[in-house]
Amino acid sequence: MPAELTGLTSVGLIPKESPVLLKKGGKSLQIGIPKERSSQEKRIVLTPESVGLLANNDIEVMVESGAGIQAKFKDQDYADAGAKIVYSRKEVLAADVVLKVEAPSEDEIADMSPGACLISALQLEKQTPEFIKALNEKKITAVAFEYLEDKVGGMPVVRAMAEIAGSTVMLIAAEYLSSVNEGKGLILGGITGVPPTQVVIIGAGTVAEYAARTALGLGASIKVFDNHIYKLRRIKQLLGQQIYTSTIDNFSLSQALAEADVVIGALRAEKGRNKIVVTEEMVANMIHGSIIIDVGIDQGGCIETSRMTTHDEPTYQVHDIIHYCVPNIASRVARTASYSLSNIFTPIILQMNDLGGAEEMIFNYKWFLRGVYTYRGSLTNAFLAKKFGINHKELQLLLAARY
């Protein structure tokens, strides 16, 4: 992000009347934030503080009543910041730019304005060809925020949610190791005279880094597996201490899993869906009562026995091994996650307003362009095209033809 746009969400909440909306051509950029329909999704993309800043920059923000309630933000908080609180889902979805966490349903897409911009998660494992068709029929420009990049090639939303998931995942493991939840009756970590908990982390990215920090802080013994040597080297440097690291091979991984109390699946898919690296046979050889947490389940997971679960029913057992496979772990700490998302999207919306809309963002910023998967009636993501058997068009060629 440009240096002048950093730290934008730190301003205080200033009660104010509805802003006077002025913009190029007499029309303000209009942002719609609908209430998430899934009971599993508790986050919201913009906090009241961010809405106040956008309102001060002549951006109209419509918030559906109750949209922030799960993250402990009241309608009045948004109204005081300058948002328009609306009670009609259709009105919010008719905005120029719709900001969501979860991908919209086909019913929600039907209520969106033709040619509008959608910014949300794509949630690849949940999508169908009908979803893509619905977007294209409305000529929606859809942007997957997990594919957005920053100026140095990082993925800010993925990084932020991974930090939260990694920090939270060990707390989840501690819950299910306890006797209260019919676990092994172990403390996560260790105390004097008692061997430490054995934690295996598969993957060496951001989730792994923060999970490892938490586990080490509690006194656990950790082993980290990844097939990229540079990632293994980096995680050792980031943690600042010598830890067990290994490339992923069946023998070493099987041995580690057989002794593990906690297994964290933290591999991130590089081209679409994750590869399975932990077979059902490996799971069957684990100590009964151990816990597996597959953080990458929204991309298929890396453990053969993993299947997606929910916050309402987060666990199941296979071979007496507890499996926790909730895709949106960050939603457990919805307020923290909402502030994190807001810090990322507030500067993006300000840039979009300055340029005059989403179309100009795509044309001017490659990091924004990388998130686009449908554009004006065409699928532009090659992996989605292959997955669903749909023809796609290269976005760069579409832009070249248009401009």
UniProtKB/TrEMBL annotation:
Oxidoreductase listed as a keyword: yes
Residue ranges constituting the Alanine dehydrogenase/pyridine nucleotide transhydrogenase N-terminal domain according to the UniProt record: 32-165
Name of the featured protein: alanine dehydrogenase
InterPro entries according to UniProt: Ala_DH, AlaDH/PNT_N, AlaDH/PNT_NAD(H)-bd, NAD(P)-bd_dom_sf
Protein family: Belongs to the AlaDH/PNT family.
Record key words, sorted: Oxidoreductase
E.C. number(s) listed in UniProt: 1.4.1.1
Residue ranges occupied by any Alanine dehydrogenase/pyridine nucleotide transhydrogenase NAD(H)-binding domain in the UniProt entry: 177-325
CDD domains with a match to the protein in the record: L-AlaDH
Keyword Metal-binding among record annotations: no
